[in-house]
Amino acid sequence: MQWGFVSNTSWAVGHPMQSWFPRGALVLSSGDASAGNCGANTLDYYTLSVGGGGDADLNQLIPFYTTYDAAVLEFDVTAHKDGLLVFKYAFGSDEYTEWVGTAFNDVFGFFISPAGQSLSSTHNVALVKGTETQVSINNVNGASNQAMWNNNRKIEVGSNVKALEADGYTNLLNTKGYQVYANQTYHFKLAIADAGDRILDSWVWIGGETLLVDQQPVANDTNPTPNCATKVVTLDGTASYDPDKDDVLTYKWRLAAPCLPPVEASGVVAQVDLSKLADGATYSVTLTVTDDNDVEATKVSTLTVPTGCGAAVASTCGGGGGSGVAESPPPPSAYPGDSSSGSTTTGGEPPPSPPPPPKGFVDGAYTAGGAAVVPCGGAVTLTAGPADDAGLAELALNYDGATAGYPVYYIWQVYDILDPSYDAPIASQTLNAVTEVTFTADDLKQGRMLKKYRVLLDVTDVPVWDAGNGLVSEVVTFLQVLACPIQPANPPEVVTFDGASSPDAFTLACGAAVSLDAGAPFAAAAAKKNTTGSQSRILRWRIVTSDATTGTVVWGYDHSIPLGSTKFVSTVYGSALVDGGAIVAGEVYGIQLAVVIDGEEVDDDNWQTRISVESLTTQPQATQPQAAKPQAAQPHTTGLQAAQPNAYEPQATRASAIKS
Questions:
Q1: 3 state DSSP class of 546
Q2: Does residue 357 surpass a pLDDT of 50?
Q3: What residue spans carry the Pro residues bias annotation (predicted)?
């Protein structure tokens, strides 16, 4: 089950969310929602493989990625008054911390729009406070917005681990306020999905009782007047207020001038030492008032430091001692309808897209622990490093402290991350007194499907796994084995649309083709139409920008299937798509299918996937991952022929790009 409710009385003992959601919470997950209420961190790689498809709106948030296993809840709300609609939530994932900064960036979004209006990425209100950046694994972690995040990976935090399955989770967060009006109806969509792969679960907790219409506070201050006698200036925000009488306000002040370091203070009344301000300079003084739902208001005034009252403050522009003029107030939001405080979201131009996912780490050696990505045709070399310390110590202890004269074997085993039993390694190597091992693409069974593995190390005195006087290290290495582009072949490789779920995304190498098997979709469409004597049978293929559901069509073709034929396969040629100008090499597109029987079109969300054609340009190298902190180990316990003109692409491109 990918969604569920935790009541106020059913929180697991010690669960950190209980105090945040005392009346219970809705849980959505890309895998097992019930694990969102676990009272312990039981696994470093918790996964329930549900085999579901992605979500079009989430794809728009991260347009270079493919989403899977989406869980979506949609409903309508009618506002009872004007104000800013907000609610509280928290996000957690077992993608933390190994896969931060990689292409496996689980995502969620909370979308709000007026009822009847199409959703877009601009309607997402699950944003990092004060930005237009969505909350996700790559955006909120130990290196980015770390004040919002908690590490809960047992191998890294040890006894400080919380009673929660997620290896990392955010603080309690507020959505960005969305402007609503009394008696108007608004559509909500809450969605979460795996991104880049189908494994390692993520969760989002939502407090239903926290949904409310908040009033924006009002920021007011008195004109700041410096007192040269006491060498202070008093900043007074006591005239500020909040129409919601129960809201608690916080106050932050910022004094800024060109080429001078800013000065910050907090509190409804704050005093600033004039010796921190430049003599004769004019500062802009910005008061930001925030209520307990993170709805903000600002007020900007100016302060000129009288000559002789300030100090000689070094210029930040390299020009020596500083003085300046007032810094301009913050520019208005680029989003139509937004307040200057960034407190509302009503649509407009989309926020900047996140950068494309990394292309994979180059071949290289890694110290055991942490995570590494294996590119197509690549290899990974692991060095035991500190992971063998406990094993060597155990051997020395069993040999009465001797430092030589006994055998030492390094046994490496690679397991599918979905195999919790450790019974069937997909690769294994046993090395005598050699601390370094290399696994090739063939060893790791690299192919068109993306794979994720765990690598374990046994340091012992016999060449047998989990035997002898040594031990299996608790330091686990994670490998992500990237899928390879489909290579030229005769006959071409087949991608099957089985109708049950979307096929995995694929990339065509230079000169490669792919055969798209639409037998199952045609059978489903024929059953839905309830006919066996059709006169016209068409596979309607479309390639679209960004997302297979909502993108703009850049190429299309109607493949007519002869009556009596039982073959529903179309072959697409990647080079022809690029050479004809339909697509750009290296960019990701959606490809979708509709079945047309006697003029009646049938489609399905599972009849679509992502396609790209490999670019021949050199890809940038990615940074090597950091090794995980070693932990103590435990001893052993023993193109188509044209049937009719098509408006979506030139005739020459259509005829050469795809054929029956």
A1: coil
A2: no
A3: 349-359
